[in-house]
Amino acid sequence: MPSYSTSIPTIELVASLDSLETKDREDNETERQTDTSIPPLPLSICYSPQLNTTRCGLVLAAAVFLVSVPVFVEAPLVRSLPWLSLALTAGWVWWSLRLMSQPVTYLWGDLLLGFSWSWLTGAIYWGWLRWEPLWHLPVEAIGLPFALWCLSRNWGKVGNWFYLGSLLGTVLTDIYFYLVDLMPYWRKIMQVEPANVSPILQSAVVQIQTPWGQAWALILAIVLLTVGILPLRQKQQHWYAFSGAVLSTILVDSLFLIAAALA
Length: 263
Known about the structure:
The chain has helices at 2-34, 41-46, 49-80, 82-100, 106-129, 136-140, 144-152, 157-179, 183-191, 197-208, 211-229, 237-262. The chain has 263 residues and is mainly α.
């Protein structure tokens, strides 16, 4: 009898506590569902599909723009002021690190850091080694070990994938130059005065318009389109940076071909 009478209050106490806990959970759940005074801004905005798609689109556009900058801005600058062009690399790196120090602008600093590698290699090659096409790819690949090292540590994915996309576009373009035998024209253009470039460009266009040149141009375009479009399905910012750099190769090469045809 004593043990039986003692266990009853204990059972009642446990049941009472369980009831209170259940009621407290129900009240908290009801409060969360009805309280709309504090909107969940950080997570809902950061992971909004619409916002993420917009940012990916901006990254793609920025990548295309940054590939065009070295071609249409750095190339003329480096021929007349190579040391200034080289020194500007430090400015790009400094600016990118400043942007990366703030969460709001980290993405753009990341992308700009990858662009800094493309600017550096372009300044070195076009400033001092542009007369020899064989040095083009080795110089352009100077940043490759650093990019792979960063990616192995999952750091700077947007900028480093941008650099890899830009480098891939350069590799494929140079392969085309080798296959179509355009390297002799490259050397001649770099050795003559700008006023005498037009006849060399016209001869190069004739070489491109051969069946061999047209066939490889079509293959190159298909490869670039495939490699550039497929990563876009991932809906991730670093793949958009990579795709933008690859696809812009088609744009830049097309503009060069048009300029050569009109020369």
